[in-house]
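So, can you check?
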Amino acid sequence: MYSEWASLSTQITANSCGAQCFSVLNKFPASAGREVVISVVKQLGTNLGITQNAEPSHLVKDEEVRWCMDVICFGLSLPLQEHETIKDCVNVYCEWLTALHPQPRISVPKPICEDANLYARQIINHFHNLFVPRQGEILPFLYQTKLGSDTIKRQAVLCHRVLRTLQQTAQISQHMDRETWDTLLLFLLAINEILLAPPTVKDDVGDQLCERVLSVLFEVWLLACVRCFPSPSLWKTLQESCAMWRHRIALVDQWNRVNLALTARLLEFSYGPDFTQLKNVGDEDGQLIPAGMTNDCVAQTWYRFLRMIGNPTAFCSPHIISKSSHFVQWALTHEKGAETHQHPCLQMLPQIFLNAIRGISSQVDAFLGLSKTALISLTRSSANAAPTTPTSGPPSSSSINSLPSIGTELRPPLSVARPKCNSILHLFGEWLFEAAHIGGDTWLQNRKKQACEASKRPSSMIMENRKGSISLSQPNSLNDPTSLPPTLTIDKYESGRAEAIGTLCKIFCAKKTGEEILPVYLARFYMALQQCLKITESKECDETLASILLHSADLFRLDLDGINVLLPGFIAALEIVLPDKDLKLKTQAITFNRTELRRSAINILLSIMVLPLHYHTLPIRNLTSDTGEKGLTFLQLKSRLMNILMNALQVETDAQNTHMLLGGLLLCVQDAVTFEDTELGGTDHLSGPGVQHHEENLLSSACSDRSASLASGTVSFGAQTTAMSSRDTGSAHDYPSLTISDDISVEFTHEFESVASYDNAHALFVRATYLVCHRLISSWKTDLNVSLAALELLSGLARLHIRETARKITNDSLVKIFEPSQNITIISTDALECKRAVKWICDYICYQCSRPPPAHSKDLHSTIVAAFQCTAAWLMQHPYLLQDKDCLQTVLEVVELGISGTKSQSKNGDLPKFKDEKELKPASMRVRDAAENLLTIILEQVGYFPSECGPESISSLLDELALMKHCNSLPTGDGLAGVCNAEQAISKFKYFVTENSTILALLEEPLGNDQDPQPTVTLLIRGPFGRHAWTMQLRHLPRSKSGVKYHAVNPGRPIPMNDITQRPECEQKNFPEGVDKVQPCVADYSIPTIDQIREQYGANVISELEAMLENQSIHEKLAWAESDNSIDSLSHAQECVPPTVCHEFHAARLFLSHFGFLSFEIRDPHNPVESLGPPQRPLIVLDTKSTAFATDLDKLDKLSARTHDTVYCFYVKAGQTTSQQIIGNMAEDHSYDSHFANMLQTLGWPVQVAEHSGWTGFAHNSWSLKGTSIQTERHQSNVSSESNYNGAQNVLYWADVSSEIAFVVPNAWNLRYNSEMDACSLSSNCSDQSTMSNVWTRGDDAGSLKSKPRNLSLELDANNRNKEPVPPTRRKGTVSKPALLVQAPAKIFLVWLESFEDYLNFPVEDLLAYARTGEELQSMQLPRAADCHVIFLHSLQSGLLRVKLQGPPGRMSFATPLVDGMVLSRRVVGNLVRQTALNISRRRRLDNDNYQPPHVRRRLKVQDIVQKYKMDLSEAELLAHLFQRSI
């Protein structure tokens, strides 16, 4: 940069030798000169005002002043023993320098004030005598051979005084001209040369002055840049001088300090105030840069200072650092003879090299926006200086020591306005690349090459370019590693090399979307990484390897061209770090946090897990091998990646790391299953409309060999077939799937079979299940987040249905179950493994429940609830498990444990304890609710879901109105007008409540499909788990045995006979004929005779009885006479016809009687327990005459028996930051990426809102029956495409047995619709609608939550810790009473990013207006942006997807399987996104104490209906009510 400019080094050398500091007193004897100095200086010192008041100077002429200055010049060169005299000389000159101040001191002579610059230059030159060695003394400031330490300390004080005075003068003077500035800068360079150029010796006092003189030099130089910018010659001289001081660690420290201060100012005006500023530049260091420095001056000064010390890699070459004349002089005068590079002070070079690279790294961090308070130390305390000669390697204590250990904390996000990688590499790339190669194979080869060339030249005396000094050059010895001391071998520079390669990784990881990096930089970076990733024979993790892993978390998810050539090297590094439980780090000067190191390694692992199945058999080229050599293929790396993942999960102890590994494990298994299903078995999958045995959302991101290119990193989806499977309600696993198959070569199939013999989908499933279950029981059971993540993974594994096409299968490992109803045979991949998994989960529940009372907490019960949900998932997906006796018993025992708190049989040999003998003490009501839910699923849903109603409903789609339309008793045609609304239909039913939780609606009218006139009753059963419709008939024979009935009009009977039969006359006898012969006994006399009655009651009673008998006899005779004379009498001829069919049955009474609901309670009056309290009635009659009854019944039907969630999907084009732009992407033109549309299809099933009976994403039209649903909003959007899933007409929907989820893609219609709904809600003040959505509370009201203690609290008193826990009770209250929410329902956004950096500016707050379900106002808490969970997906050029998660901070915020930073295949994105959204919602519910499960809300609503409409009837009134007909 200054090659064409002359250097001023010769002038500095002359000043150092005292050429300009010669006095006339030097011509006289030293004693005479000393006496003159003492007498003159003492007199001058008395006028300065130090000991007495200052007086004006008597020196009024220039000659007088020059004479005195000649005396003072000699005084400054006196021996150090004359300390007081030298001190007076310094005081006089320091006072006279105030002539340059705005207000000079009074003691300054008049001639100096008149020409201050001239005299100031002379004074500055005379100050050389204070610093130069005295005659006969050898560098007294650096060697303590003859002088005492006190003398040197006093001398150092004087030097500090001079430096402080000169610095202060430069700061406040406004009169200094260029010549004076040049003199001052040359003086500072000269004294630094005197103090710093000689090699450091043990026990010197360089630490007292070195850092000070350097700081003054740099600070005054910065002042000169503002006041009088130094000439290029001065800049060149400064650069050359700094090259001679590089063995001083203080030089690098001060260089870092000034560079960071300049960089802070540079960033302010280069990138604006929004750019992340350096926070570490404090008040003291911030004043380094003068206030008046212009932006252009800052830029010029910054670049010159940056290049001041040259290439930092020179610190790795001791022979370069030690080639100055001072080192040569030391080598020549050494007693035993030594090389210049063997001086002890050079042992600090590794630490100096590390500090220099750290300074560069800190500047790189500043440009990237990674500004942290502890980036680098800017303090200049000399107390932290390192000792000169460490005994065991370079020490780490220096002024830069406050720089943190690598990886001690997570780095903040990069600044959006950061410069491009090319720009940073233009500045620092050359140094960093060279530093990264230090000690590598390339570096060693270059050194050998240089040594070979140097050996061809004879040893010679080389004249230095500057100062004419002589240095010995012995190339052979200098380049021979054996000639270096042990502390300077190349391995000692490992720390600096690690810092350099880590900085390079940070630069390349800062690549933005679409940014291009020059190929030359990529090539050099890949070569450096390949050299640094080489594993030593000891297989230890050194500093370089750790630094690479720590800073390369994003390297494989940035679309770097050709980055996959490094895949084998990174996998080898991961094999060292992750599987080792006690990782041993081979470190020198850098401290690593092992947890953060493993976390970064896991991030790398998560970004490369899907590559083997994505690129198939594509070869990975070797950077250094010949092109003809066949390298590895991606598929061959799959088994190594799986082993790393499994082994890492087995030894990991950190909760967050384990969470990430569990998400990656499910990704691997899911991807393998989906790959085998779509790619290997794609032809079978598309062969016909067969039953689907999988739930995967399959979108192939695979590519064939001819369509994939490593250089371009793109994937071609050429000949692909898309098939959307239709929902088959008869299928046991009815889920959306989008299958895209590519052509798979035969060679690939064979290679896959050979490589994946033990890590195919089935093997991964078995290994993952075993490992996770084992660690869940042994290690993870006490950690909430890890337990939840493990249970989420097991739930995900349960839903996998693996095709056995990649390997040969033996029939022994399969269980075949034939289902006649579906005419299919389900083949379980490993029934034994599934059974073992369920057993382990049940054991986990038992262990958690059996923990002592002090251990029972909210977190513990959350894990138990999650385990019950996981068990339900396994049983639903593998219903054959309940056919196993042991498995069924295990599951039911755990259910019993959850409901009652104990098992009936604690051991196999114990007698079972019956239910009525047990005391209900569940662990908590949440646990009991979860166990009840599992029991209901076992009894009602396992093997039967989805029902004929489809997965959108687990309840019957029939209600009162629908049943009445099919009733036989109603007239056809226009007669239906009699039952046109719900109130009229309800009036035809009788309503009863049993067990205070189930409403029975009984209809005694036969339905239209009933052809047999039998006593029929139709039931609508509304319970906690849904609404069910049943029709029952009282039949004397089963339908199979009733036979075929003949309904002909004329059966062809014989002609009747007209003979009149004679009725025989016979006497009626009340007793047998021989009764008189039987001897009477005492009992016979208990019945009184007529006479006895006459005597007891009187004759009147007997008379009345006889009159009644006589009248009855007369009536009977008359009836017989009329019968004989009538045509229909038996004596006349008539045809026998069957009687008319009876349609009048009291079927409800029969049903209630047969099912035991009319068996009233009989109490024992002698039992005090039974005699107390009101009688328990099996039935409660409801009064249906109230008009509000139908409304409350509809509200009950609107409470779904499953959880419901909503995910809002957005598409963000590059650079979009406003909600209007983002919403505008979903317009009719469909300008978004086609892959986004394909991904939407894999999230759920497209459904029409008007015909949908499940959750729609909006509370007002969800769970409506088909044909009776609320009409769609009148103001429809103009967009009528089927792909418009904004919820107006269509929505994406998915459901399983316990949850529903809707995927809504909002557009402009949603904002208008939400505004209208909000206005409607506020105007109508619909307080009664709060029952629909207030699902987050168990309390009576907000006041009760604050004033009353928590009934569910498990906190125990100190005195009762060892006692049994108190049985939990559910809070009383109804869901109709709104309460303040502790936590609002989760808002989940799914965002597709074209540019990854746009996630930083995603307008969550503005988009909340488009994401309304109608529950926000009713729940009395509006969602906040801080509470939203956002799943960002960024499409890479390789066809993969990068995941970014954003959500509220919390213990349970992020759920699996998606992990922040994970890279996905498009095959599995829909499934994993859906699982993550469901798991996020489940975790939020688990984290809320006041959340009520759906079946609990329905039970409480039933109880509320009972309290409103119950009829207090006695037993007789209840029985009489049964005989009353409905209206």
Remarks:
- The longest strand covers residues 1203-1212.
